[in-house]
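User: I need a structural model of ACT domain-containing protein from Massilia antarctica for a docking pre-check later this week. Nothing fancy, just the predicted structure tokens so I can convert them on my end. Input:
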Amino acid sequence: MNDSHLPLRFSVPRTTTLDTLEAVLAIARRGGLQLAALELDSRGADDTIFLKLRAADTDLLDLFMARLYNVIGITDICPLYEKVTRMHVA
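Assistant: Understood. Predicted structure tokens for ACT domain-containing protein:
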């Protein structure tokens, strides 16, 4: 099986980071995606989340992105198509 990968970054208000991250990971799980990496950067005004997801079908990744735009509180959604060196793959 040749998995497709989706590295991305988005920002959330610090007061809702855990709730928002829980919602995002639930969407990924229900969509059949696997979490390959997760990193939290709290240096800015908002928390920045770096995720790397993988799926057997690229359509699942596209569907996840469409659903991600509907989660309240997420801003600056940015798919990272180049190699991300700061990610730690589990």
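Before docking, keep this in mind: Residues 17-30 form the longest helix (14 residues).
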